[in-house]
Amino acid sequence: MFTLIFVCLCLLCCNLHAETECIPKTAEFKMKGDYLLGGLFDIHHVSATLQQNIPEAIICSSQNFSLSSYRRFQMMRFSIKEINNSTSLLPNVTLGYEIFDHCSDTKNFPGIFSLMSVDGSVQPWKESVNFSKVIAVVGTGTSTTTMTVAPLFMMDLVPMVCLYGASSSVFSRKRNFPSFLRTVHPNKDVIEIILRFLEKFKWTWVAFLYIDDDYGRDGLDLFGKKIQDTEICLAFSHGLTENTDYPKLFKQMEALRINVIIVFTTEWTAERLIMSAIQQNVTNKVWLAVDAWSLHKETPKKPGIRNIGTVLGFAEPKITIPGFDDFVFSFKAQHQCENPEQRPFCNQMCNCSSVSAEDIITADPSFNFPVYSAVYAVAHALHAVLHCGAGSCNKSIKVYPHMVLEELRKSKFTLLNQTVQFDKNGDPKFGSYAIVFWNESGDCDVSFDGGLKICFDVSTFILLLSYWFILWFYVLQPESFCSKECPDGYMKKQEGVHKCCTICPKGIHLNTTDSYNFIKCNKTQWSARGNTSCTELQLEHVKFNDPAAVRVISWTVILLAFVVAISVLFALNYNTPVVRSAGGPMCFLILGCLGLCSTSVFFFFGEPSVAFCVLRYFPFLLFYTVCVACFLMRSFQIVFVFKISGKFQNISGIWIKYNVHWIFISAAFFLQAILLIIRYSLEPPTKEKWYYDRNITVCDLKKFETDSLISFILISVMVFLCFCFSYAGKDLPKNYNEAKAITFCMFLLILIWISFGTFAHVLDGKFIDVSHAVATLLSIYSLLLVYFLPRCYIILFKSEKNTEQYFQDLIQSYTRSCSQ
């Protein structure tokens, strides 16, 4: 009962105060619609001295104004207006909103109760499906605020899509926060980025300053867990409050010789810290700023900011929201006062008349896309609930928040080239981090006087995609460590508080866990001169997920697709002159063997075994022999028909009657099969090759060449004869000259394997397997593309050349030219 009386008094107090204020004609904080979205933004911020645990209401408009939060507030209004104007998203449906200035963790419950109320009342003990007038809530701004507010919405599964500051890892626990989602990355992601930075630049002696609330303490806890198995040492940590003694704080860090300071806090706390550092003449430090304050607009302009050292930060890449600037200018141009009939609820006024459109547009753009994507996520969820189709939605469906929540969890849509999606914990599966670099020098443009530089976009900051681009860091080399590491080949020796280095004797290596004593490497290890540890001999081979393997396998799959496609095309056009002239049934034998040859490529990757070594050579040698034998017979037939058959008609009759070409192909196949089976049965290829520092698991290529010498000779002789026969028919009829195609095939084949033989003697280790696979694949492609692709082109695009009359005309023309 006391709570209800308190709420009524609060509402009365705020309404009486609001009567004296100037109210915009187009209310900023609320707009009617078919469905309402709630909004909680810390447009004003209450100082810690007022954050007492006394349950009394507070008027936020009298507190410190936050321009960046006001910009985010306007972003929500713009997003809803843009959705309402859309014809594809929620057609014929209007979204409304009711937004509150949530400036305090403990003194803004009237606004929360208003969002939870139905017809102006909250009845938590009464079972009713009408438990909230909003279908979802966008906000709030900090982890502590969210921790206070979220349970009130969780009990009825009202979706709460939170933004910039609500990044504590506790919200990922769906048991406690079942209807909580967020469009900003949790703390663990930025901690992971910080850890990579520290490891990259070998900063192992750091301080961690955090705001003393749920957000900061969560960051400290995550950082402590992340560095447990690393060489990074947390030399100092301290929670920042309004009562922090900064001079004492900086003296403690200076005594510990800390040069890298992680500042995990909000923008207002970070501003006090940086200003104190300037006043205390703190110099030559590296300050790592988290996304909550890295894009702060005013701090980089402070006098003396360059003296404190280098400020590096992490933030979401700036994403320009089309139409937002026009919206702000339009809204500011239409700002009017006095509408007695439209009276604001408690904390639904801003007193922002002095803020210009330019101020809003140029404010800190942090977390604007999370606001934009949060509103759109709710809209897409509602779109699914209402079964919206082309031009209309089913408004007869009664929408409850839990229905919107179910669709939110399944959200997946594209917004400004970003795929908006949530994982099972309600955390975003989209977005990335950019590096923010505060620096006064450089060749980049300046957006603000005394501000920050940009290289990739016309904004206030350098947004780098990777820390590899911070080239000047490699020159200055900031350092932060407890004791300087000894060079390779040196042993640590304790002398008082610090450690010094003593050179190690030659041929001796340090223990990996004890840098004060020497040990020797055992026989299964190796170590170069001057190393501080012994290294196990590593087994190396080309894995299936290796980039080179992925590319080769991809091209193999494409080749198989080509084989199938050409086979189908030839089968459908089997009785046409082009297919018959290409060999008729022999074409399908060649295509089938090429497909079987390509299977050997797959066995060049993965950990080799005896079976792998056999299968990478056996299918290729066997079935490629058949292909070459077919081409040999085909080239001989072409030359025989045009050059010899007239003189030796008896031979022609025998050739056709007894199918000599098929006998030869079968003989080549069985001969090669017998040779390979005998060779690999007697002595399978080995699979290991030792180097001084590693063990390469690879099939021995030299042994393969020796064992398969007869098989190679057989193929080589057929290739040579095929080349000779096909070259002899180089002057056959134009457009009917298969001999030229076969000649070029054989030429490419010879060139490919000569090139491979050259590279095989230059390359080392597992790269030989990659080059061998490439050579195998290229030799298959050479036959497939050079011989079959031109015929496919004639079948598909030059049907006038695929007629018996056309071929007869070519032959007759050739006969007349030969008789002249």
List keywords for this structure.
820 residues; alpha/beta; Rossmann fold; Rhopdopsin 7-helix transmembrane proteins; 6-stranded mixed β-sheet; 44% helix; 13% strand; disordered N terminus
Describe it for me?
This protein is of the alpha/beta class. Among the domains are: 24-46 and 62-185 and 322-426, Rossmann fold; 547-819, Rhopdopsin 7-helix transmembrane proteins (Up-down Bundle). Helices cover 44% and strands 13% of the residues. The strands form nine sheets. It has a seven-stranded mixed sheet, covered by helices on one side. A six-stranded mixed sheet has the order 1-5-2-6-7-8, sandwiched between helices. A three-stranded mixed sheet has the order 26-28-27, with no helix packed on it. Helix 17 (610-644) packs antiparallel against helix 19. It is elongated, with a radius of gyration of 38 Å. The chain crosses the membrane at residues 552-574, 586-605, 617-642, 662-682, 709-729, 741-763, 769-789.
Strand percentage? 5-15%
Give the strand tally: 28
Number of helices: 24
The CATH architecture of the domain at 547-819 can be named as Up-down Bundle
Low-confidence stretches: 1-23, 441-476, 494-499
Shape verdict: elongated
Largest sheet: 7 strands, mixed
Main location: membrane
GO molecular function: G protein-coupled receptor activity
Membrane topology: Multi-pass membrane protein
Family: Belongs to the G-protein coupled receptor 3 family. TAS1R subfamily.
